[in-house]
Amino acid sequence: MNKTPLNDSYLGMKAIKKYGYFSSLVGIIEKSNGMTDYCLRFKHGYSTSISFLEDIELVEVERK
Predict the structure, then answer these.
(1) Using one digit for the tens of pLDDT, what is the confidence trace for 20-42?
(2) Rounded to an integer, what distance in angstroms lies between the CA atom of residue 40 and that of residue 31?
(3) How far, in whole angstroms, is CA 52 from its chain's centroid?
(4) CA atoms within 13 A on the CB side of 46
(5) How far is CA 11 from CA 1, 3, 21, 39, in A?
(6) Which of residues 8 and 24 earns the better pLDDT score?
(7) N- to C-terminal Cα distance for the chain?
(8) Do 31 and 47 contact (CB within 8 A), yes or no?
(9) Distance between CA 47 and CA 1 in Å, rounded?
């Protein structure tokens, strides 16, 4: 199965991670300094790494 990698055009968008420990929480897509290029940062300060568009569900299409 081919997955679509995230790119900088998704930075700042709100998204929900589809599975895992932080699933169903809304976060902001940001650049990561960890093992992956992007992360989903939550308002309480935690973040989780994301790599592919299929791992998340976008909450809004436009950036604030």
Answers:
(1) 888 889 999 999 988 889 999 99
(2) 9
(3) 8
(4) 7
(5) 25, 18, 22, 10
(6) 8
(7) 32
(8) no
(9) 26
Assess contact for 55 and 18: CB atoms under 8 A.
Answer: yes
State residue 35's pLDDT score: 86
CA-to-CA dists, residue 64 to 20, 22, 44, angstroms: 26, 23, 19
Give me the pLDDT at residue 30, please: 96
- Where are the chain's structural domains? 8-55
CA distance 35 to 62: 27
Among 1-5, 28-32, 42-46, top mean pLDDT goes to 28-32
Q: Please give the model's pTM, rounded to 2 decimal places.
A: 0.84
